[in-house]
From TrEMBL:
Species, as recorded: freshwater metagenome
Higher taxonomy: unclassified sequences, metagenomes, ecological metagenomes
Protein's UniProt name: Unannotated protein
Inositolphosphotransferase Aur1/Ipt1 domain ranges (all copies): 33-200
Keyword Lyase attached: no
Segments traversing the membrane: 12-29, 49-70, 82-104, 162-182, 188-206
Keyword set, alphabetical order: Membrane, Transmembrane, Transmembrane helix
Length: 214
């Protein structure tokens, strides 16, 4: 990684500050009280999905990896512009989610979970105990995870082992959202759409790739 200029160091600080604020906005909408009953977007497939509480492991690792580890790897391996694309895509993606949460709030009613294993206990007391059943569509976990997958995909030739391990781990987070009954299947599709829109939009604005046909 090339030595950063003072301006670039300020940019790194502001992007990480923006990521922190993006998480704060998620929490604000997740703990808000609404004058209407949030929608339940449950489909026939959701009825058949069981609770598999071992998925709490990738689910809980999400914020540390997506908000800190992947942006730092993008900076170190990909360079300053790759970092900007990754970090700003998270911020822009969250802003898109916040608009949905503000005008189209959804919920996923809790499913009773018998605490038969340590993973069940973590699900009920750590996740369900600290996270309201709101902010369903699109999924925040899916959006940030797919942004991270795209960022690591672009680093796969420079750091193949790290990139493939992290991409595989983030892929686990997508089914974790439904296997923990935190989301419905439609929320995954919404999160993927937001992630691709935010990431590729930021990439074209920041990196300005040459798309001329030779």
């Amino acid at each position: 990684m090339k030595k950063l200029s003072s301006r670039q160091k300020l940019g790194v600080f502001l992007v990480f500050l923006g990521i922190v604020l993006a998480f704060v906005t998620y929490e604000i909408f997740n703990k808000a009280h609404y004058s209407y009953e949030p929608l339940i977007m449950k489909g026939w497939l959701d009825e058949k999905i069981p609770v598999i509480s071992i998925f709490v492991i990738p689910y809980l690792s999400f914020h540390l990896l997506a908000a800190l580890v992947v942006p730092l790897l993008s900076l170190k391996i990909g360079g300053y512009k790759a970092f900007l694309v990754n970090g700003i895509a998270i911020i822009v993606g969250q802003l898109m989610l916040d608009v949905a949460y503000a005008f189209f709030q959804t919920q996923v009613p809790r499913t009773p979970v018998p605490e038969n294993s340590p993973f069940d206990w973590v699900l009920v007391n750590i996740i369900y105990g600290n996270d309201q059943p709101l902010n369903g569509f699109p999924s925040n976990h899916v959006t940030w995870s797919v942004v991270s997958i795209l960022a690591m995909w672009r680093l796969r030739t420079r750091a193949p082992r790290t990139s493939w391990i992290l991409m595989g781990w983030f892929v686990l987070i997508l089914p974790a959202t439904v296997f923990l009954h935190q989301h419905y299947v439609i929320d995954i599709y919404g999160g993927i759409f937001v992630a691709f829109s935010a990431y590729w939009g930021c990439m074209f604005l920041i990196e300005k790739p040459n798309l001329k046909i030779r």
